[in-house]
Amino acid sequence: MAKVTVLLCFCVLAVFGSVKAHTEKGKVGIYELKRGDMSLKFTNWGATLVSFVLPDKNGKLIDIVLGYDTINQYKNDTTYFGAIVGRVANRIKGAQFKLNGHTYKLVPNEGKNMLHGGPKGYADVVWEVTKYQNKGHKPHIVFSYHSFDGEEGFPGEILVTVRYTLLAENQVTVVMKAKNIGNKATPVNIANHAYWNLGGHNRGGILSEKIQIFASNYTPVDSDLIPTGKIEAVKGTPFDFLKPKAIGSRTKQLPKGYDINYALDGVHGGKIRKAAVLHDEKSGIEMELSTNAPGLQFYTGNMIKDVKGKDGFVYKAHAALCLETQWYPDYLNQPDFPQSIVEPRKNYKHVMLYKFSTH
């Protein structure tokens, strides 16, 4: 998929301490959060997670997310490595939807459909850094973006913020918020598109990692990966990860890998509950993910093909996986799916909590 780029200042900033003032408009930088042996780096291009370094079971520091060495590579990226995607993540059939009696035509960027907000979604804009503190009890950074009425065809004007916070005991929160400041209702479904390999970004593959997904049902898709509208049980299918299993244990049934939405269990009143647990035997690192969102897109990097990443390492298919908590794909055209429509003066809030340990 081709992406639209914007001519901006290409400088990379080394930023330390506490930043109270807003970033200079149009400038793109690199920012670090550090607590103990855990270090996260970001760029405000796409509010993107660039690196995630922590010790394995032997104390060796490894980087467990895919990414690039330069800002320019992120600007030309087609994989969404580490980015925040929206206004509506995942796919919208026919790049259109109806809301309050009006049909909205969006900008397609995957055949006739829209993916992750269109050719210039939130992954391809400069976010403002409005809060930044890389020391103290809770190191954090807040990215903000003003999404205008009509952007990529979406109605309504919203203010979006994404806050990454390092908590005690190897925990990280990602809080994505949006406030509708316009006079039109609008769909909002913002997602984090990090690519994880708990053995290290340069380890080579994730098919041996074990995953548990707390979902009894999934949403089947057609040949364009658009949900059919059905919600079916995972039992007796290759999508059943209710108990921990190696990701590559069903390669004969699904040779290309996974790219599917799970209907998470325990969706009651938007409470945060466990969505998935991922474990790598060699590194000993385990990642537990919790969320308040109703869905989880499990994607095994099927379409990665010879992408030159960090330190010149070449990423191939299944080099990493994505666990994107979200509202279901194409929910705007599926009235029986959970809906995320933000009315004027109302708010959207999407929370992810990561807990890391070694075993």
Automatic annotation (TrEMBL):
GO BP annotations of the record are: galactose catabolic process via UDP-galactose, Leloir pathway; glucose metabolic process
Q: Which InterPro entries match?
A: Aldose_1-epimerase, Aldose_1/G6P_1-epimerase, Gal_mutarotase_sf_dom, Galactose_mutarotase-like, GH-type_carb-bd
Top enzyme class, one word, equals isomerase
Q: Which residues form the active site?
A: 193 (proton donor), 324 (proton acceptor)
Chain coiled-coil ranges: none
Q: What EC number(s) does its UniProt record assign?
A: 5.1.3.3
Report keywords, A-Z.
Answer: Carbohydrate metabolism, Isomerase, Signal
Which family is it part of?
A: Belongs to the aldose epimerase family.
- Fetch the PANTHER family from UniProt: ALDOSE 1-EPIMERASE, ALDOSE-1-EPIMERASE
Please give the name of this protein.
Aldose 1-epimerase
Coding gene? LOC105114172
